[in-house]
Amino acid sequence: MLLFLATPVFNSVSRYYEHQADQYGLEVIHGLVPDVQLSAAQAFQILGERSLDYPYVGKLAEFWAWDHPTIRDRMIFVQTYDPWGEGKQPEFVRGSPAGSEPTSQNNAAQAPVRNGQPTPLRAVTASDLR
After folding, report:
1. What are the DSSP E strand ranges found in 80-121?
2. Which stretches of the chain are DSSP H helices?
3. What is the tens place of the pLDDT at every residue in 85-115?
4. Which pLDDT score is estimated for 55?
5. If phi over 0 gives left and psi between -120 and 50 gives alpha, with beta otherwise, what is residue 94?
6. What interhelical angle do 71-80 and 2-29 show, nearest 10?
7. How many CB atoms lie within 10 A of CB 26?
């Protein structure tokens, strides 16, 4: 009985950490992917379709039974999270590691190279996950 009543508390903590993980992921790939927000939103869309998530979860059901943020909430978050555009520092990924300050030669993210030619980066598609 106690575990049943504690379920919403455990799920809330889990949702919080999952949200933090989403935020960290956005910060890590910022500058490496051309449109971070679009790529992340597409990835969550594909995740929701593949896992058959119900898109409009009620707040009570989410509070009681969901241990991850809903796909809808995740998509909204990744499309609106942009501390760089607001002139703020991201929460988790700040600057460069000690001793590896960017120089003018390695300041921009580098595209993968195949056969001596840069390979353009692209957004994740459903066929990539099959």
Report:
1. 113-114, 117-118
2. 2-29, 36-50, 59-65, 71-80
3. 888 999 998 874 443 444 433 434 444 555 5
4. 79
5. beta
6. 30
7. 22
Exposure of 75 by Cβ count < 10 A (0-12 exposed, 13-18 middle, 19+ buried)? buried
Q: Taken in order 85, 87, 93, 97, is the CA torsion positive or negative?
A: positive
**Identity at 47, one-letter amino acid code:** L
Geometric angle at alpha carbon 92, from 89 and 15, rounded to 5°: 120
pTM score, two decimals?
0.69
pLDDT, residue 53, reads: 86
- According to DSSP, the residues that pair with 114 across neighbouring strands are 117
- Give the integer Cα–Cα distance in Å for 63 and 14: 11
Q: Where are the domains of the chain?
A: 33-81
What confidence tens digit (pLDDT) does each residue in 6-35 have?
Answer: 999 999 999 999 999 999 999 999 989 889
Which amino acid is it at 18? E
Q: How many helices (H) and strands (E) does the chain have?
A: 4, 2
